[in-house]
Design goal:
- With 191 residues, the protein is mostly helical.
- Helices cover 83% and strands 0% of the residues.
- The protein is elongated.
- The chain has helices at 4-31, 39-53, 64-91, 96-117, 122-149, 153-190.
- It has one domain (4-190).
Length: 191
C-alpha cells in the first residue's frame, strides 16, 4: 500500500489549517480593540509570523506588499482612535487629568459593558456593550477629571459628552480599519 498521496496532501492541509487558525486569531485580535488592546497591531504581528514561518503553497501565502499595507493601516487606525477619543474632549478644553481618567474609565467600563451586554444578545450584545460601556466610561472619567480639577459643571458636561462621542467615533473608525486589515490578510492567505 502506497502513501505517496499522504506526502502531497499533508503540506496542503497544514497550510490551510494554519491559515484558518490565523483567521481565528486575527478575528479575536480584532475584537480585542473594544477593550483598548491594540488588536490591529496584533493582527499585523500574527500575520508577519505567518508570513515568516508558514511555507506558502505555489501561489498562496501572505505577500510582503499586503503585510506592509497592513502596517500602514494599523498606524492609521491608531491615529483615528487617538484623534476620535481625545480631539473632541481637548477641543472642549479637557485637562490632562480628565483625559487620563477618561482612558481608565473607558477600559473599566468597556469590560463591564461587555459583561452586561453578553447575556442579552451574546455576540452583538458583547460588542455593543463594550462600545457603549467604553463610551460611558470615557464620559464618567472625563467628568470626574474635571470635577477633581475644579472646573464648572457646564464645562464638565461638555467635556464628558465630547469624550463620549469621541470614544464611539474613535473605536468604530479603528474597528472599520481593522476589518479592512482582517479581510485583506484573510483573502491573501487563502487565495
Amino acid at each position: 500500500m502506497s502513501f505517496e498521496w499522504f506526502n502531497e496532501w499533508l503540506p496542503f492541509t497544514f497550510y490551510y489549517l494554519m491559515a484558518t487558525l490565523l483567521l481565528l486569531a486575527n478575528l479575536t485580535a480584532w475584537l480585542s480593540i473594544l477593550f483598548l488592546i491594540p488588536g490591529n497591531w496584533i493582527m499585523v504581528l500574527l500575520s508577519a509570523l505567518f508570513y515568516a514561518f508558514t511555507p506558502g503553497q505555489e501561489n498562496n501565502g501572505i505577500t510582503l506588499t499586503v503585510l506592509l499595507i497592513a502596517v500602514a493601516l494599523a498606524g492609521l487606525g491608531e491615529l483615528v482612535e487617538m484623534l476620535g477619543g481625545s480631539a473632541g474632549a481637548a477641543k472642549k478644553g479637557a485637562s490632562r487629568r480628565a483625559m487620563i481618567l477618561s482612558l481608565l474609565g473607558t477600559f473599566v467600563f468597556s469590560l463591564l459593558g461587555a459583561m452586561v451586554g453578553t447575556p442579552f444578545l451574546p455576540p452583538a450584545g458583547t460588542v455593543a456593550g463594550a462600545i457603549l460601556g467604553g463610551s460611558v466610561g470615557a464620559y464618567i472619567g472625563a467628568y470626574l477629571g474635571e470635577v477633581w480639577k475644579g472646573n464648572l459643571a457646564v464645562d464638565r458636561f461638555e467635556i464628558g459628552r465630547a469624550a463620549f462621542i469621541g470614544r464611539i467615533l474613535g473605536v468604530v473608525g479603528k474597528m472599520a480599519i481593522g476589518v479592512i486589515i482582517l479581510v485583506m490578510i484573510t483573502i491573501d492567505s487563502f487565495i
